[in-house]
């Protein structure tokens, strides 16, 4: 059995790491990540619909290991053969591919850091660490 941390300890950590001024960072990153996950799930469901797959228990075999970019690519390919992709959905997929996927990848593979002076979120790395005192982006 896993022992849990005492509730008081968790609240202290939450207050220290998720208090002001960092709270907007966690809210925005969390909201984006959640919305991205839902959008990716809908793309997956559209792919299954186009392919005529209605047994969702078999879905994992088809989509396991696919990232969002591959799911978009496969959806476009399936639509060319089975079900034409309308211009509105095609434009939305393009925005998702060109803007949302790179943003998600930067969030997942870097350290999002809120500069308290500029109120701008920067994507930091080991080569480009955050500097809380700087008024310039890292």
What do you see in this structure?
- The structure is a single chain.
- The chain has 138 residues and is mainly alpha-helical.
- Helices cover 59% and strands 7% of the residues.
- Strand 1 and strand 2 (120-124) form a beta hairpin.
- The chain is elongated.
- The model has no long low-confidence stretch (mean pLDDT 83).
What keyword list fits this structure?
2 strands, mainly alpha, 5 helices, 59% helix
What would you say about this model in short?
By secondary structure, the protein is mainly alpha-helical. Helices cover 59% and strands 7% of the residues. It has helices spanning 7-17, 23-51, 59-63, 68-82, 87-108, and strands at 111-115, 120-124.
Tell me the series of helices and strands, N- to C-terminal.
Answer: HHHHHEE
Count the E strands. Answer: 2
User: Portion of residues in helices?
Assistant: 55-70%
What gap, in angstroms, lies between the N and C termini?
Answer: 43 Å
> Which percent band covers the strand fraction?
5-15%
Main-sheet strand order equals 1-2
Number of helices: 5
Compute the CA-based radius of gyration.
20 Å
